[in-house]
Write a structure and sequence with these properties.
By secondary structure, the chain is of the alpha/beta class. It is built from 13 helices and 12 strands. Keywords: ATP-binding, Cell membrane, Membrane, Nucleotide-binding, Transport.
Length: 330
């Protein structure tokens, strides 16, 4: 049985003038210890997916339909008291900005110890020992000193390491990392990602990595979901998606990577911008930006279909695949 099984998850926001759909029938599975990447531009629905999985959507957002089966339990129906036991204890989240996550008026030690004691019957001394152990695991120098410090006294990279240590405090089965290195320097980003990978492998923890960077996904994850305008447009093994992208949007994301451009040349961009939720175009949401779009693409919404070992929602790819099958059958 999968650790996490999401089926037809739809999230809506009740605005003053209308209700908009932020996630459209998202479905995917995550095995125990598996590492999954969720990729797309800003506005694709990546972070909303993470918040929905934790049931942390704030009004006016809400889960409209679908199920989130976590270890056999549909948490969309779970009362808040049960979710408080699952959050942190079974599912942990690493947010983009550690300065928002950490309480500025409490020391690192106070925050880690109180987190442990909220979920476990531990003495303050025992909780502090566990906190020290986790800080050592994330390679924090002088952990005894760090426990006495406040967040503002630490560097950005060190704060992010502490957030990861806090995510691992209660030995969760799943970590959701939402753009965990956005505010960090490039060299520190690489260190944090390598650390996260090693910790997940060593502790057999499942990982959902939410990012806009396909380069990071290629290094850390085993499978990838590519999202656009609240929909999954391509899903499959990370290596195959990177080496042979099927959807034009995925191809555009890969072409936009800096390493795809020669020194001195302009970086390649996908023309246009992600549509806003209140003005999603008819048919394929990507069609206004797609160089391969036909009349059918602007009229009909493509359904996700199996294409080799991947799943793709694209009229053009599905048509080419059907033509190939017809030729092979001749």
């Amino acid at each position: 049985m999968s650790l996490l099984s999401v089926r037809d998850l739809t999230v809506k926001f009740a605005m003053r003038s209308q209700t908009v759909t932020a996630l459209h029938q998202i479905s995917f599975d995550l095995a125990r210890g598996e590492r999954l990447g969720i990729v797309g531009e800003s506005g694709a629905g990546k972070s909303i997916t993470g918040f929905a999985l934790m049931k942390l959507l704030s009004a006016p957002g809400y889960i409209d339909s679908g199920t989130i089966q976590f270890d056999g339990t549909d948490i969309t129906q779970a009362p808040e008291a049960q979710m408080r036991q699952i959050r942190g204890n079974r599912i942990a989240m690493v947010f983009q900005d550690p300065m928002v996550t950490l309480n500025p008026v409490l020391t690192i030690g106070q925050q880690m110890v109180e987190t442990l004691r909220a979920h476990r019957k531990l003495s303050r001394r025992d909780a502090q020992e566990i906190a020290l152990t986790k800080l050592r695991e994330v390679q924090i120098a002088a952990p005894e000193l760090r426990l006495k410090q406040y967040p503002h006294e630490l560097s950005g990279g060190m704060r992010q390491r502490i957030i990861i240590a806090m995510a691992l405090l209660l030995d969760p089965d799943l970590i959701i990392a939402d753009e965990p290195t956005t505010a960090l320097d490039v060299t520190i980003q690489a260190d944090i990602m390598e650390l996260l990978l090693k910790l997940c492998q060593a502790n057999k923890v499942g990982l959902i990595l939410i990012t806009h960077d396909l380069g990071v996904v290629s290094q850390l994850t085993e499978r990838t979901l590519v999202m656009y305008a609240g929909r999954i447009v391509e899903a499959g093994k990370t290596r195959e998606i990177i080496n042979d992208p099927q959807h034009p949007y995925t191809q555009g994301l890969i072409n936009a990577l800096p390493q795809q451009t020669l020194p001195g040349q302009m970086l390649k961009q996908i023309p246009g911008a992600m549509p806003v939720l209140t003005d999603i175009p008819p048919g394929c949401p990507f069609s206004p930006r797609c160089a391969f779009a036909l009349a059918e693409c602007r009229r009909l919404l493509p359904q996700i279909m199996q294409q080799g070992s991947s799943e793709v929602a694209c009229h053009e790819v599905n048509r080419l695949h059907s033509d190939l099958l017809l030729e092979e059958g001749r």
